[in-house]
Amino acid sequence: MVMQWLNIMEGTPGASNVSDDASSTVVGFTGTLAERITASIDKITTEYLGAAKPHFVAVGVTMAALAGSYALWEIGKGVVSYWLAGPLRLGANIKKYGLWAVVTGANTGIGRVYCLELAAKGYNIVLVSRNQEKLEVTAREVQDVHHVEARVIQVDFATGRLQDYLHVQAQLQGLDIGVLVNNAGIGPEDPATPFLDNPPDAQSCLDQINVNCASYTMMTRMILPQMVVNRRGIIINISSIAGDDYTPNMAMYSATKAFSNFFSQALAQEYKSKGIIVQSVMPGPVMTKMVQEKDKKGLAIVTPEDFVPPALAQVGLRNATYGHWKHALYMKRRKMGNWFMSLL
């Protein structure tokens, strides 16, 4: 109907003049309205701020400039960390830190890929987990693909027994360990539910603490002294985005991962002068057995093979990282949303 009217108008004498007049009227009205709004704002601010108005304007401009600068800084930091660190080799030269890497939770998912990536850099691998059969499968893969030595240690960290750690320590005796990856973990129930159902019972609570917190502490305490003596070493603790921002309906899991995150960042400061690098890695949804069903089709989901290389490339560059740019973007958006909600 509109197009028909326009076609008719184009063929009507004087239609062009009518159209031009209408356009002029609209432009004039819009300009008048904008002027009125500007004048009203100016009148109100002058009335209430008086002589202080120029100072408030200066503060506003300064705050806007600072906000813009911060946004540019965050974007630049993200590009360098998640896109350029690998190709430009901006992180630490991981190869020079020792001969062996120890990886817990090594049989599948993120742990398995860390084993393969570190083996590709020339490390011999000690794989630690509770499933002997899966450990041996991954160990053979590491040996066959990268032609390095691989050893397995079967242990269930959920028990929390000191003798289990003494058993692990005995098998690591004499190895020049350059990298420790604490990746063992027990995830939240799926679907996520409030605390009294997630974990489902008291024993599950203890298991999650023992694996997600105690194993990180004890493995670090076991291997860190050697690193301090050698004045070189890398400790990578796998936390979670749930440990960077409190997460309702997985309170227990979120708290244990917050422990890992803060433990890592404190250690990074304490032992930096000793030549030790400590990195907290906070993944978002990764396609492993721990991923929530609701996240499997989300835009932020990545595979372990996509996740580990950029995270490893940031060792020595970032003490705390989300690992993958998708997870970084997801968390920036989530934190901004939380901030806006806090203003309401």
TrEMBL record:
SUPFAM superfamilies: NAD(P)-binding Rossmann-fold domains (SSF51735). Gene3D superfamilies: NAD(P)-binding Rossmann-like Domain. The keyword Zinc-finger does not apply. PROSITE patterns: ADH_SHORT (PS00061). One of its GO terms (cellular component) is endoplasmic reticulum. It is found in: Endoplasmic reticulum. The keyword Oxidoreductase applies. CDD domains: 17beta-HSD1_like_SDR_c (cd05356). Its main location: endoplasmic reticulum. Keywords: NADP, Oxidoreductase. It holds the Pfam family adh_short. GO terms for molecular function: oxidoreductase activity. It comes from the Eukaryota. Belongs to the short-chain dehydrogenases/reductases (SDR) family. This is Uncharacterized protein. It comes from Ramazzottius varieornatus (Water bear). The gene is RvY_12659-1.
